[in-house]
């Protein structure tokens, strides 16, 4: 009878340990899913903002096509939208600003062989 009790206690401890490990695994998977989903949400927000800016530019273009004469404010707003679009598109592509030089190569380039 004591052997059965010992085996049962060991089995209960193993089940508790397994439940603890499954709980830890669940927490890790949830954290990983959150990390993976973050760039997607960021990209989605950037894409929405790009669509809004493009729609605003299209609206201005349509107004001009209908005969509206643009003033200085319209030109400034179009330039602001263009700059914002440029920044958002670079952010979406993950590129550096044009003013930043590209990183130096780790090894010098080899000349092409004829």
Could you characterize what this model shows?
- By secondary structure, the protein is an all-alpha fold.
- It is built from two helices and no strands.
- The protein has one domain (2-93).
- Helix 1 (2-65) runs antiparallel to helix 2.
Write a brief structural summary.
Helix content is 75%, strand content 0%. With 114 residues, it is an all-alpha fold.
Q: How are the SSEs placed, and which strands pair?
A:
Blueprint: H1 2-65, H2 72-93
Helix pairs in contact: 1-2
Characteristic key phrases:
114 residues, 2 helices, 75% helix
Number of DSSP-assigned strands: 0
Radius of gyration: 30 Å
Global structural class: mainly alpha
User: Mind describing the biggest β-sheet?
Assistant: none
- What is the share of helical residues? over 70%
């Amino acid at each position: 009878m004591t052997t059965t009790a010992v085996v049962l206690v060991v089995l209960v401890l193993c089940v508790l340990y397994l439940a603890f490990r499954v709980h830890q695994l669940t927490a890790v998977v949830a954290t990983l899913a959150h990390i993976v989903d973050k760039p997607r949400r960021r990209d989605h927000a950037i894409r929405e903002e790009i669509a809004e800016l493009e729609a605003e530019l299209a609206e201005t273009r349509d107004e001009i096509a209908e005969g509206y004469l643009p003033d200085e404010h319209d030109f400034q707003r179009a330039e602001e939208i263009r700059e914002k679009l440029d920044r958002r598109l670079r952010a979406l592509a993950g590129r550096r600003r044009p003013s930043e030089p590209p990183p130096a190569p780790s090894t010098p380039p080899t000349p092409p062989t004829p």
